[in-house]
């Protein structure tokens, strides 16, 4: 039993919860990350799940996804609570507190997300058939709902308002916040924005068009966009569309993907697959930041999108083209050391330092040479305006446009041989980068830490003693004669006992515990039982008498007598023979922490 005591306290932090799915979460209850595969909230129609899912190595998020238990594909997440701060895969949990607040706590007892709600009513957290996670009171008052805090996805009848926005994921495998946003701008127009680490810009509707030219109406105050299960989308700025499969009620979701495009996905229940039934942008090279700085983008309907480095530049990160390309040369301000490489059919949008109408090519070239920050210039023919010059401070949003009536001239050092583009299809060289979750643990309770160390030491000591006894009994067995009536003296075998030994062990055959075909069975007090009894007897004396006999001499006097008495008292209580007398885990914690509120030394 002594080894069992040590093992019990080593496993003390573990708790066990129901492994079945839940219909709701009530006050005082929680979802544990360790049980994430079975411990989740299920909508009544079983279409949606809410719970923990893995986003990286030992990194988990709490969110909502379409329930598809038979699919081997990654889950389709529609909402996340902590997309930018995943929690540890151990000891993290989502709890509905008695105060009415929902909190997501990491293993280090750090609150990574909260609903910031409060209610004295018996509130509950439940998942509706439409995928909306709702915290409400019995009379129906909604305190919090996930529909008010979308991440990168809208569900049918979930509105996008002036107070909400969609933010893309970083990549297909990285659910943290990306660089693209769908929102209503200050002109009440539904817009797509690239918000990168260095620059930001609007790319949809086309920024060179006025609102009315793009078919938008900015004189509205509602600022709301929504779609239904039939596939109809309508925005208050007059943008509307119907999907290819419009008219059929089916599971749908509108997602701002990591490439900056918004797509409507419909689910074929027969094939159990999702397919694109509409997208906002069909020329994906018009999406800003998709290939990064110093690049060009080309699109082929059959081969997909291709990103290329401009001549004189090399790719920074082949697994993520949003990092763009870096120069292979040192930039010089000396105009005599610079030359220009002219490229046909390539357009660079934005980041113009100068704009001159009716300019000659040489005037545009000299204007760029006079500016140390000029990276090149665009020279194009504008109908009704003649040839125009655009000097560039940055080479961004490049795209191959066969119908583009102009050229781009790159500023390069003389004597270079840069004439080719380094290109690769944007979908190639995709590396799956897992998120690693690290955390700072909360300082441990000194009593619990000491007691766990003490239990570990006792367990190790018992293992050593067991090994020594095993060796002794093995040698004894080897020396025994063959006429020992088949009894094997071994650690797990049977041994002869004398009548006096049996009488002493069973307390004079006083406790009968059963009868059988072989006779009466009496209860024996084992060595471990006698050890517990011995500790209890010793503890009845003074501190100085029993502590010196129980405590490991290696500790010497470096311990608190009251703390040690507390630890021994807890250990004895946990090995009571009657389970009704043993304390629960919460009672054990209260006993261990009692010294903090009533210290005696």
TrEMBL record:
Ranges of residues in domain Apple: 333-423
Membrane disposition: Single-pass membrane protein
Ranges in a coiled coil: none
Pfam hit, one: S_locus_glycop
Keyword list, A-Z: Disulfide bond, EGF-like domain, Glycoprotein, Membrane, Receptor, Signal, Transmembrane, Transmembrane helix
Domain Bulb-type lectin: residue ranges: 16-148
Signal peptide: 1-21
Catalytic reaction list: L-threonyl-[protein] + ATP = O-phospho-L-threonyl-[protein] + ADP + H(+); L-seryl-[protein] + ATP = O-phospho-L-seryl-[protein] + ADP + H(+)
Boundaries of every EGF-like domain copy: 281-319
One annotated GO biological process: recognition of pollen
MF annotations from Gene Ontology: protein serine/threonine kinase activity
Top-rank EC class of the record's enzyme: transferase
Listed transmembrane segments: 450-473
UniProt-listed SUPFAM superfamilies: alpha-D-mannose-specific plant lectins (SSF51110), Hairpin loop containing domain-like (SSF57414)
Cellular component GO terms, alphabetical: membrane
Assigned EC number: 2.7.11.1
Entry's localization field: Membrane
PANTHER family: OS07G0415500 PROTEIN, RECEPTOR-LIKE SERINE_THREONINE-PROTEIN KINASE
Protein name as it appears in the record: non-specific serine/threonine protein kinase
UniProt lineage: Eukaryota, Viridiplantae, Streptophyta, Embryophyta, Tracheophyta
């Amino acid at each position: 039993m002594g080894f069992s005591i040590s093992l019990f306290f080593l496993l003390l932090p573990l708790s066990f919860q129901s492994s079945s799915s839940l219909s709701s979460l009530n006050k005082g209850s929680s979802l544990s990350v360790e049980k994430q595969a079975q411990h989740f909230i299920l909508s009544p129609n079983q279409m949606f799940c809410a719970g923990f899912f893995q986003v990286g190595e030992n990194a988990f998020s709490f969110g909502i996804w379409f329930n598809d238990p038979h699919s081997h594909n990654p889950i389709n997440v529609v909402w996340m609570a902590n997309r930018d701060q995943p929690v540890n895969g151990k000891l993290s949990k989502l709890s509905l507190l008695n105060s009415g607040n929902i909190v997501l706590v990491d293993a280090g007892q750090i609150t990574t997300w909260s609903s910031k709600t409060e209610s004295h009513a018996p509130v509950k957290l439940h998942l509706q058939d439409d995928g909306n996670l709702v915290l409400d009171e019995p009379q129906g008052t909604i305190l919090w709902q996930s529909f008010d805090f979308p991440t990168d996805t809208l569900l049918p009848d979930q509105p996008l308002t002036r107070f909400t926005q969609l933010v893309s994921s970083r990549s297909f495998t990285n659910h943290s916040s990306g660089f693209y946003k769908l929102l209503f701008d200050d002109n009440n127009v539904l817009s797509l924005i690239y918000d990168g680490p260095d620059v930001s810009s609007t790319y949809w509707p086309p920024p060179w068009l006025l609102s009315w030219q793009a078919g938008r109406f900015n004189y509205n105050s509602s600022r709301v966009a929504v779609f239904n299960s039939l596939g109809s989308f309508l925005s208050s700025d007059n943008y509307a569309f119907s999907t290819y499969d419009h008219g059929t009620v089916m599971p749908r979701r509108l997602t701002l993907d990591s490439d900056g495009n918004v797509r409507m996905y419909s689910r074929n229940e027969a094939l159990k697959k999702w397919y694109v039934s509409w997208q906002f942008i069909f020329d994906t090279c018009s999406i800003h930041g998709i290939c990064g700085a110093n690049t060009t983008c080309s699109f082929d309907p059959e081969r997909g999108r291709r990103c290329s480095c401009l001549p004189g530049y090399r790719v920074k990160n082949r697994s993520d083209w949003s990092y763009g390309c870096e120069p292979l040369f040192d930039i010089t301000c000396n105009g005599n050391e610079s030359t220009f490489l002219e490229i046909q059919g390539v357009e660079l949008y934005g980041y113009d330092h100068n704009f001159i109408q009716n300019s000659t090519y040489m005037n545009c070239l000299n204007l760029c040479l006079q500016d140390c920050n000029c990276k090149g210039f665009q020279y194009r023919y504008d109908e009704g305006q003649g040839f125009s010059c655009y000097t560039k401070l940055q080479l961004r949003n490049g795209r191959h446009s066969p119908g583009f009536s102009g050229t781009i001239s790159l500023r390069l050092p003389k004597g270079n041989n840069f004439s080719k583009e380094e290109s690769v299809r944007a979908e190639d060289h995709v590396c799956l980068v897992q998120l690693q979750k690290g955390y700072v643990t909360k300082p441990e309770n000194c009593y619990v830490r000491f007691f766990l160390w003490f239990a570990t030491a006792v367990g190790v000591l018992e293992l050593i003693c067991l090994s020594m006894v095993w060796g002794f009994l093995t040698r004894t067995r080897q020396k025994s004669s063959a006429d020992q009536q088949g009894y094997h003296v071994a650690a797990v075998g049977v041994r002869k006992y004398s009548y006096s030994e049996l009488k002493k062990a069973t307390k004079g055959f006083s406790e009968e515990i059963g009868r059988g075909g072989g006779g009466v069975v009496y209860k024996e007090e084992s060595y471990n039982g006698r050890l517990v009894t011995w500790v209890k007897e010793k503890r009845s004396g003074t501190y100085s008498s029993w502590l010196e006999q129980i405590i490991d001499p290696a500790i010497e006097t470096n311990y608190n007598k009251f703390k040690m008495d507390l630890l021994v008292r807890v250990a004895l209580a946990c090995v009571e023979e009657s389970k009704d007398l043993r304390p629960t885990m919460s009672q054990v914690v209260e006993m261990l922490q009692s010294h903090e509120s009533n210290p005696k030394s």
